[in-house]
Amino acid sequence: MKKIAVFTSGGDSPGMNACIRAVVRTGVYHNLEVVGIMHGYDGMMKNEFIPLDAKSVANIIQRGGTILKTARSKEFMTIEGRKKALENIHKHEIDGIVAIGGDGTFKGALEFSKICNIPMIGCPGTIDNDLRGTDFTIGYDTAINTVVDAVDKIRDTAESHDRLFFVEVMGRDAGLIALRAGIGVGAESILMPETKTDIEDLIKRLESGRKNKSSKIIIVAEGDEAGGAFIIAEQVKKRLPDYDARVTVLGHIQRGGNPSAMDRVNSSRIGFAAVEALIKGEKNVMIGIVDKNIKYTPFANAVKHIQELNPDLIRMVDILSM
Questions:
Q1: Which of 42, 128, 130, 141 is catalytic?
Q2: Is 128 a catalytic residue?
């Protein structure tokens, strides 16, 4: 192994830059030449390769987003697109690849491996925390802290006006942002794709809750089966017209911001382990951290999953929201 490439793909997440930094500096330490591929798989097809060294990744560990940019590429999912990418990989004499991204990134890597025998190692970069093989994905901790900070500010207004706020957070297929952030802000209820949304139960909860509460917060994951915060809020307003109910959609602010200390450390560990995995001869695996230890998970097993949420956390939410 003499030369490796690193790229970021799919949705950006805080900590990607810390991971890039770790990959580059670990590669340099092991006397490897390192190049970055701009704009993910799209840049791989368009020959957007740039040299990277220890200096080029200085002062990025604290930055959100990704210095290598990112994109989603439909063309790469065609055999013609993957052949273009392979041609450029061979042109640059790449011996190993580190892919930082989520479910789509690893699916792309699996397809690429059918025509490319160059080893690829994945680093789990997604704020949703919905990949098998790691306790926490890159960006998840920062995202839930961003939600908590935003909802704390919303609660100031809610308390001042005795309002009920429905706050919609990211989570099209998974409610892990909603769950942990909801616990962190002391939400009255948390509505997620993994659980059945019972509007009648929500109405009863609001009616039977403490009447002297000056604010109420309902956290709604965007993929909730009932249709999202606006639709749920409208149903509640019809049944409880005395409530001054408002909706806030946090949207893409959850992707941005400086990564938390936890994300910086985890991203650095994962990037470091990815390069050493290539050197050891590993291929087509994702690097994860499970019970504080580095773990390799084959791409085929690391793809997005809808997992059962911890029932103890769900029960705790119900009790603590009294």
A1: 128
A2: yes
Q: Domain limits at 234?
A: 142-255
Are both 135 and 7 inside the same structural domain?
A: yes
Do both 59 and 117 map to the same domain? yes
Residues 134 and 17 in one domain: yes
The stretches of 59-139 forming alpha helices (DSSP H) are 79-91, 103-112
- Inform me whether the pLDDT recorded for 307 exceeds 60: no
Tokens linked to 83: 């052949």
Please count the structural domains in the chain: 2
- What long-range pairs does 226-231 form, CB within 8 A, spacing at least 24? 226/191, 226/197, 226/199, 228/168, 229/166, 229/167, 229/168, 230/166, 230/168
Q: Do both 265 and 289 map to the same domain?
A: yes
Per-residue pLDDT reduced to its tens digit, 253-294: 999 999 999 999 999 999 999 999 999 999 999 999 999 999
Q: What is the pLDDT of residue 209?
A: 65
Q: Are residues 154 and 104 in the same domain?
A: no
Cα separation, 219 vs 182, in Å, equals 6
Q: Which residue has the tokens 């957007």?
A: 48
Q: What pLDDT sits at residue 213?
A: 63
